[in-house]
Amino acid sequence: MKNKAKKIVVFSNMYPSPQHPTFGLFVKNQVSLLQSAEIDVDVVAIQDTEKGQMQTLKKYGSWFLRSFLYMMKNRKKLSLTHAHYAFPTGVISMVGKKLFGIPYVVTVHGGDIDKMAAKNERIAAITRKILRQAESVIVVGDKLRQDVTNRFGVPESNVHVMSMGVDTSIFNYVTKVEAKEKLDLPIEEKMLLFVGNVIREKGLLELVEAFDALKMSVSDSSLYVIGSQKDAHFVEELRSFIREKDVEDIHFIEPLGQAELSLWMSAADALALPSYHEGFGLVALEAMSAGTKVVGTDVGGLSYLLKDGAGILVEPKNPASLAEGLWKVLDGNSDEINETVVQAKIAEHSFDTILENLLSIYRSAGKGPVDYNE
User: Fold this and answer.
1) How far is CA 200 from the centre of its chain?
2) Which domains are present in the chain?
3) Which of 207, 215, 225, 368 has its CA 20 to 30 A from that of 156?
4) Could you tell me if residue 240 is left (phi over 0), alpha (psi between -120 and 50 degrees) or otherwise beta?
5) Residue 232: Cβ within 10 Å count
6) Rounded distance, CA 339 to CA 341, Å?
7) In which element (H, E) is residue 191 found?
C-alpha cells in the first residue's frame, strides 16, 4: 500500500522537459517506475540544458536554493532523499542529512566519478565525503563499484550495483523486415546504428573510419547516427571528416522518443557503441532488448554488460578492431553472441527487477516506520 506518512524526493541535475524530452530521461523513467508502485515521490531537478559559465552558475544556484527550501519545508515528511550523480547533486542531499537529519541514497552514473572528481582534489574530496556519508551508494556498473570502493573508500556493504533498467514493454523484439517497412527503409540494406550524444568521447570519428572500411566489402550498408548535436564544434569536425573521407550513406537524426527509437533499433543489423568510457551503456541494453546485436568498446560498464557472449567487445579508439567487430555481425558470423546470455542480461536489468532492488535499498536507508510497497 502507498505510504501516506512519508515520502522521498529525487534530486537530479538532469531531467526531461517538453523542449528537451531525452535530457536525463533515465531519471524520469525511474521516478515513473516508483510512482507505478504507488511510492510518494517528488522531484527537484534541473531541466535547462544551456551551457556557459554564467548560465551554469545561475541554474545551479537556483536549483540548490529550490532544493534547500523544499527540504526545509518537508523535512518532517521525508523518509530520504535520492541524489542522481554524486557531485554536484549529492551535495544537497549531504546538506539535508547534516541540517535536517534526512538520510540519503546517491546513484553514481560514471561522469561524476570519471570526469568531475578528476578535475581537482577539492571536488574529489567533496565527492568522497558525499559517498561515505550516504546510507547507500548505487552504481550503474561493476567498474564503478570498484572505483567507489577502491578510490573513495566506501565500504562494499554500502555499494549496490544496479542499472537504470530497461523497459521491456517499450524496447521489445520486432522483426527487421517489419521495422524497416514501418520506417520506410530499404529492406535489403545492411544497417548500422549509433545512438547517443554526438560528441568526441562517443568514438564517432573511429566509427566513421570503421564504416568507411566496411563499405569496401558491404557496399549496400548505411550508418544512422541518432542523437543530440549540441556540440556544434565537434559536429562540424565530424562532418568535415566525413567529407574528407568521402564516405557516403551516413545519416544524422535528432533524438527520438523511446517507442520510435526501439523501432530503429529493431531495424538495425548492429548497434555500434565505440565509446571511450561508459558508466553502464544503457543504450546497448535497450538495443539487446529490441533484438539487435551490439558491438561496443571494452570499457567501463560495457566490459561487463557485453561479456560472456552478450555482445561483441572491441578495442577502444581502434577503427580496425571496430570494423572487424561490425563485420562479424554484418557477415552473419556472430556465433560468439550467446542468445541465452543476452536474455539473462535483459531479465537481470528489467524494470521489475530494478524496482524490487530499489525498494529494498530504500527500506534499509529510510528512517522511521517506512513500509515501501509491502
Assistant:
1) 17
2) 7-165+350-365 (3.40.50.2000), 176-348 (3.40.50.2000)
3) 368
4) alpha
5) 9
6) 5
7) strand 190-195
Per-residue pLDDT of the chain (374 residues; tens, 9 = 90+): 344 447 999 999 999 988 888 889 899 999 999 999 999 999 999 998 877 788 888 999 999 999 999 999 999 999 999 999 999 999 999 999 999 999 999 999 988 887 887 788 999 999 999 999 999 999 998 889 999 999 999 999 999 999 989 999 999 999 999 999 999 999 999 999 999 999 999 999 999 999 999 998 898 999 999 998 988 999 999 999 999 999 999 999 999 999 999 999 999 999 999 999 888 899 999 999 999 999 999 998 899 999 999 999 999 999 999 999 999 998 876 678 999 999 999 999 999 999 999 999 999 987 644 555 44
Instruction: Report residue 6 as a C-alpha cell.
Output: 512519508
Q: Judge whether 202 and 274 are in contact, CB under 8 Å.
A: yes
Q: Is residue 6 within 8 Å of 40, Cβ to Cβ?
A: yes
Three cell numbers, residue 187: 529492406
* Contact (CB, 8 A) for 294 and 273: yes
Single-letter residue type at 295: V
pTM for this prediction = 0.83
Judge if the upstream peptide bond of residue 369 is cis by omega within 30 degrees of 0.
Answer: no
Residue 312, helix vs strand vs coil: strand
Distance CA 78, CA 73 (A): 10
> Do residues 189 and 223 make contact, with C-beta atoms less than 8 angstroms apart?
no
- Which grid cell is 222? 548505411
CA–CA separation, 302 and 325 (whole Å): 14
Contacts of 345-350 with CB under 8 Å at 24 or more apart are 345/285, 345/288, 345/305, 345/310, 346/166, 346/168, 346/285, 346/288, 346/289, 349/163, 349/165, 349/166, 349/285, 350/165, 350/166, 350/168
